[in-house]
């Protein structure tokens, strides 16, 4: 399915020896609260196996990543990673990348240095610009090889993931490889297959929906995406969140696409919520979750499925409308299906129920997962594969 070399290949070929300098691209893009605490450790904990493997091999590791879009500091993430790896010395470097070589040279075997938010560097987001080419050269000069473990950013063609592959022997990390393997299974599901897609922004998910409607036996639509289809099918959606563009008739009329039969609604300025059928939403109300009957019906579908792909919450999860999403996670927890799940608030619901990792894979990717499922590849996969 993919043709890139992995860190396991590098180890088998004895390319990683004590003292080998490894530039490691990791997803460090995690929510940080005002007090510096990390809101969700999932990406950091998933980055550990590759770091630990490199430490076992006594490599010198230069950890590179970014956080946010406003030039925030990675210092709280560095502190959190150090807590997760108490036996590994991880220093922090916030000087010019071109000056980092001296720090790397001073690392002992089996030590790491984390570079400050690489998105602060001119050229990171545009590796073919002059600044980008300089950044690629500066990063490549720090190391003997490159390992990309940042699947969550693999849809970004940046200097620190795609650019450096032209300068260094490059390998996919353990998490990156596992993400590609597991998400590849979701491209061609076998047996009775169910896709569940929630969240908002129909226009950004349209290519994915077109693909899923071709490959899955049923596509269940929740969140604000469902409001668009309900409206297109003639149901009243009141003041619900809807996309600017009308959705194509070919999608709206596709019988593989399943929308809720009942919903939870709230009225502006009224604290109480109510449940009603999708024919009964009042003009002053907006939809905030799938209803209980829909949750039961979709849980039943999950119990009969062999494979479930899920991205995006069923309701306005961050405002507390969690029941629909939670009901479906619970159904997956109780079922025997294989499942691939990803995407912000879906991941928050996942923590509430025990999910057997041998049959349920939780992706660290948000946008990367959606783009991979729509296109079957990503810029960082292509960059690694050219090596
Ligand atoms: C994500 O959180 O989806 C990735 O880390 C990508 O973040 P970005 O959209 O800021 O590049």
Structural key phrases:
six-stranded parallel β-sheet; 387 residues; alpha/beta; 14 helices; 17% strand; Rossmann fold; binds 3-phosphoglyceric acid
General description of the model:
By secondary structure, the chain is an alpha/beta fold. The protein folds into 2 domains: 7-177 and 378-385, Rossmann fold (3-Layer(aba) Sandwich), CATH 3.40.50.1260; 188-355, Phosphoglycerate kinase, N-terminal domain (Rossmann fold), CATH 3.40.50.1260. It is 36% helix and 17% strand. The strands form 3 sheets. It has a 6-stranded parallel sheet with strand order 3-4-2-1-5-6, sandwiched between helices. Helix 7 links the parallel strand 7 and strand 8 (218-221). The mean pLDDT is 95. Residues 27, 29, 69, 152-153, 156, 366-367 line the site of 3-phosphoglyceric acid (3PG).
């Amino acid at each position: 399915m993919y043709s890139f070399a992995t860190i396991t290949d590098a180890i088998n070929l004895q390319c990683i020896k004590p003292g080998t300098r490894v530039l490691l691209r990791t997803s460090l893009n995690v929510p940080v609260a005002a007090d510096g605490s990390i809101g969700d450790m999932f990406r950091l904990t998933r980055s550990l196996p590759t770091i630990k493997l490199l430490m076992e091999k006594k490599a010198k590791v230069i950890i590179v990543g970014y956080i946010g879009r406003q030039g925030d500091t990675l210092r709280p993430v560095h502190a959190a990673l150090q807590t997760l790896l108490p036996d590994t010395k991880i220093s922090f470097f916030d000087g010019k990348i071109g000056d980092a070589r001296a720090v790397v040279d001073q690392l002992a075997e089996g030590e790491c240095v984390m570079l400050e938010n690489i998105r602060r560097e001119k050229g990171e987001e545009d590796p073919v610009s002059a600044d980008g080419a300089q950044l690629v050269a500066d990063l490549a000069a720090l190391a003997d090889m490159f390992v990309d473990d940042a699947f969550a950013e693999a849809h970004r063609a940046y200097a620190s993931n795609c650019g450096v592959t032209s300068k260094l022997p490059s390998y996919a990390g353990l998490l990156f490889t596992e993400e590609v393997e597991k998400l590849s299974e979701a491209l061609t599901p076998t047996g009775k297959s169910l896709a569940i897609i929630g969240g908002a922004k129909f226009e950004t998910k349209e290519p994915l929906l077109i693909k899923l409607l071709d490959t899955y036996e049923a596509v269940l639509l929740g969140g604000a995406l469902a409001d668009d289809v309900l409206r297109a099918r003639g149901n009243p959606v009141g003041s619900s969140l809807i996309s600017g563009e009308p959705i194509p008739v070919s999608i709206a009329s596709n019988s593989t696409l399943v929308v809720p039969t009942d919903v939870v609604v709230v009225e502006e300025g009224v604290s109480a919520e109510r449940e009603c059928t999708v024919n009964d939403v009042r003009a002053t109300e907006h939809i905030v979750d799938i209803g209980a009957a829909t949750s039961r019906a979709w849980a039943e579908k999950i119990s009969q499925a062999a494979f479930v792909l899920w991205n995006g919450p069923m309701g306005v999860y961050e405002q507390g409308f969690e029941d629909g999403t939670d009901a479906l996670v619970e159904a997956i927890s109780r079922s025997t299906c294989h499942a691939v799940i990803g995407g912000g608030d879906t991941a928050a619901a996942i923590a509430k129920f025990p999910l057997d990792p041998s049959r349920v894979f939780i992706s660290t990717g948000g946008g990367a997962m959606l783009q991979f499922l729509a296109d079957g590849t990503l810029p960082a996969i292509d960059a690694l594969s050219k090596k």
